[in-house]
């Protein structure tokens, strides 16, 4: 691998609806980051990423999102991932 | 008002049906994402951080009450009840589901709207002055020309594989309200010896390599517009770089070749192309001019408005910011702020869109405009109707009297929505607006343009802000670079970086130091921030920005 490996989770957007999804230990797409499979082994991470990328009928843009392992499961390792996990940081108009 | 032709309506319908089947094939697995992505981008459909985003064109910023009401309906039916008006005179829906997008596009087609050429390497929506056809300082209405360009550029066979996106802006007034020299081609309508023509600028643009457009022709007869534009695009199509996406815009071509050499390429293309046009475009233009002719405005008294101004201070404050001169002295151009303090700049809820549509019908000839500063304009309001209009706006939360002030901020979606963002923009804009209002300094500070982008792509025009703010990611933390002295008008200038960036929480205190320094330094209340900066140079302002940081460093 050319780039230095960073542990993380597989994330993508749902093809039909567009929302953020994560892959869990069973290879299913789930909504919450803390339920995602935490990947700290580069070989396994690459394998999962290939599986995710093959699911083009379910998701778009799968990638390894940097994360750390907290007491309740994976946590975002970068502010971008924190926003992806929780949605916009602002109050949405009219809601 | 201009109506799309039957041919256009049929083309929009055909394109909608085509995209519906492309979406179906994507959903049933016959198209991969790699195959589908260029197709969805051609139809204005992006994938952002949390959802898809549909970008809908509002050609030359002109939209009817009926179309506005349809946007409200779309926002309610398939999005989350609001939309975002952008600096490019588009509206973006932030939460569509792929499965619903074909229905949204059909609903747009029902009112002659579409999302074609709002993204990708195409000639994009031509933008204009939002006061077009109404303002007192207008030389000619730019919209017939913008529509002519739209018809010429849509699906133009020669330009299906351009090196990069291509943006044209036209301004018809003396004041530049379309930031024309920040576009690939900027056109200024001018009059010479009774003849209408264009001063042509080329090679402007923002993004990672900001440049101000250079003059290519000081006077192009209006009848030569399309062949000349075609020559420009053709010259760039051949000479433009395709090896590097960041060097593909025409601004780099012009910069690398020099304006004279580029001009030679254009002039070499021009004669044959001009001969090929044979006047068909001029017949279309004549027809378009008739369609864009100003609405018949009955004469109305305006004394009652003057009286109301004298007795109603709120109306007076609002009118001072929002009302601009119309070519008909009984009428006014009204700018409605989409920058309520603390709200995301440019967002409108479906209720607000419906109110805007109702008010346009009641008071404004059923016509609305979207400005590149992310506000909404009613171009033709009788002065006698202004008090009633103001009351209705007030009830609907649309009467913020801040046009041109500190809180009238341009901000891109930034990391709250955008997948390319390196930092957030919207919450900063919200905090700046409420902070200076709460300090009671907004009217004291007066005219000020703050513009914020959430990454180097500069969708928020930060280079053109009197104060520009660019959000970056510095080692995993949001960091904001401040530029000073930008100007989006006919005296266009690019802001200069003031120094090291600020952490998210340091931006507001830094701006407060900066603006308090301005209040101390200005010669009089009528000297704006930009004027004071131009007179004094950036040093005293940088001192104010970095005062505290320097103190920390010295400790
Ligand atoms: C959220 C999705 C968006 C994406 C993915 C996006 C993407 C981009 C990119 C990649 C550029 C740089 C082009 C270049 O330098 O070649 C750009 C420029 C620009 N965008 Fe956006 N943009 C988005 C939203 C917006 C919005 C909301 C606005 C209006 C408020 C906007 C207005 C502009 C403008 C005015 C430029 C000017 C720079 C130029 O063309 O020279 N964009 N955009
Ligand atoms: S400037 Fe960057 S963050 Fe802002 S909308 Fe454009 S691409 Fe997104």
UniProtKB/TrEMBL annotation, chain A:
This is DUF2849 domain-containing protein. Pfam families: DUF2849. The lineage of its organism: Bacteria, Pseudomonadati, Pseudomonadota, Alphaproteobacteria, Rhodobacterales.
UniProtKB/TrEMBL annotation, chain B:
Residues 119-271, 409-549 form the Nitrite/sulphite reductase 4Fe-4S domain. It comes from the Bacteria. Keywords: 4Fe-4S, Heme, Iron, Iron-sulfur, Metal-binding, Oxidoreductase. Residues 52-110, 344-395 form the Nitrite/Sulfite reductase ferredoxin-like domain. InterPro entries: NIR_SIR_4Fe-4S, NiRdtase/SiRdtase_haem-b_fer, Nit/Sulf_reduc_fer-like_dom_sf, NO2/SO3_Rdtase_4Fe4S_dom, NO2/SO3_Rdtase_4Fe4S_sf. SUPFAM superfamilies: Nitrite and sulphite reductase 4Fe-4S domain-like, Nitrite/Sulfite reductase N-terminal domain-like. This is Sulfite reductase.
């Amino acid at each position: 691998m050319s780039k230095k490996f960073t542990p993380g989770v597989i994330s993508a957007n749902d093809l039909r609806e567009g929302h953020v999804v994560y892959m869990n230990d069973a290879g299913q797409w789930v909504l919450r980051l803390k339920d995602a499979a935490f990947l700290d082994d580069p070989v396994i991470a690459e394998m999962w990423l290939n599986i995710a990328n093959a699911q083009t009928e379910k998701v778009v843009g799968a990638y390894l999102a940097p994360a750390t392992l907290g007491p309740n499961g994976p946590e975002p390792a970068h502010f971008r991932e924190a926003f992806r996990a929780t949605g916009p940081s602002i109050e949405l108009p009219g809601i | 008002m201009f109506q799309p032709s039957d041919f256009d309506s049929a083309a929009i319908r055909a394109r909608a049906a085509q995209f519906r089947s492309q979406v179906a094939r994507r959903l049933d697995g016959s198209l991969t994402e790699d195959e589908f992505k260029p197709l969805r981008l051609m139809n204005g459909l992006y994938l952002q951080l949390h959802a898809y985003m549909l970008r809908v064109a509002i050609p030359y910023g002109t939209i009817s009450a009926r179309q506005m009401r349809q946007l409200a309906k779309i926002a309610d039916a398939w999005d989350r009840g609001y939309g975002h008006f952008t600096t490019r005179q588009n509206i973006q829906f932030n939460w569509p589901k792929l499965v619903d997008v074909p229905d949204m596009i059909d609903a747009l087609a029902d009112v002659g709207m579409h999302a074609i050429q709002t993204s990708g390497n195409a000639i994009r929506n031509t933008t204009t002055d939002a006061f077009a056809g109404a303002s007192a300082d207008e030389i000619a209405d730019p919209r017939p020309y913008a529509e002519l360009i739209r018809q010429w550029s849509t699906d133009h066979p020669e330009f299906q594989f351009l090196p990069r996106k291509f943006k044209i802006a036209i301004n018809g007034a003396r004041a530049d309200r379309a930031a024309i020299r920040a576009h690939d081609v900027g056109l200024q309508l001018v009059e010479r010896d009774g003849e209408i023509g264009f001063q042509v600028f080329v090679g402007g643009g923002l993004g990672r390599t900001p440049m101000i457009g250079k003059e290519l022709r000081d006077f192009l007869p209006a009848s030569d517009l399309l062949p000349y534009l075609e020559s420009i695009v053709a010259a760039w199509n051949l000479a433009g770089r395709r090896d590097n996406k960041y060097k593909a815009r025409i601004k780099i071509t012009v910069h690398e070749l020099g304006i004279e050499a580029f001009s030679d390429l254009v002039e070499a293309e021009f004669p044959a192309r001009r001969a090929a046009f044979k006047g068909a475009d001029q017949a279309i233009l004549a027809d378009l001019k008739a369609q864009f002719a100003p609405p018949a405005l009955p004469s109305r008294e305006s004394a009652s408005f003057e009286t109301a101004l004298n007795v109603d201070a709120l109306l007076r404050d609002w009118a001072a910011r929002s009302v601009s001169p119309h070519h008909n002295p009984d009428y006014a151009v009204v700018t409605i702020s989409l920058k309520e303090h603390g709200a995301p700049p440019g967002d409108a809820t479906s209720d607000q869109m419906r109110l805007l549509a109702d008010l346009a019908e009641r008071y404004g000839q059923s016509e609305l405009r979207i400005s590149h500063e992310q506000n909404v304009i009613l171009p033709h309001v009788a002065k006698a109707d202004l008090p009633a209009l103001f009351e209705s706006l007030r009830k609907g939360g649309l009467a913020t009297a801040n046009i041109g002030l500190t809180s009238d901020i341009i901000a891109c979606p930034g990391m709250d929505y955008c997948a390319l963002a390196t930092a957030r923009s919207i919450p900063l804009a919200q905090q700046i607006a409420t902070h200076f209002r709460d300090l009671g300094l907004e009217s004291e500070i007066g005219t000020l343009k703050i513009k914020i982008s959430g990454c180097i792509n500069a969708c928020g025009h930060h280079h053109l802000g009197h104060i520009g703010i660019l959000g970056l990611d510095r080692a995993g933390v949001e960091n904001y670079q401040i530029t000073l002295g930008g100007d989006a008008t006919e005296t266009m200038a690019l802001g200069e970086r003031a120094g090291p960036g600020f952490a998210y929480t340091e931006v507001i205190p830094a701006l407060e130091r900066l603006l308090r320094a301005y209040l101390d330094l200005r010669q009089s209340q009528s000297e704006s921030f930009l004027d004071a900066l131009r007179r004094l140079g950036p040093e005293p302002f940088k001192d104010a920005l970095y005062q505290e940081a320097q103190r920390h460093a010295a400790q």
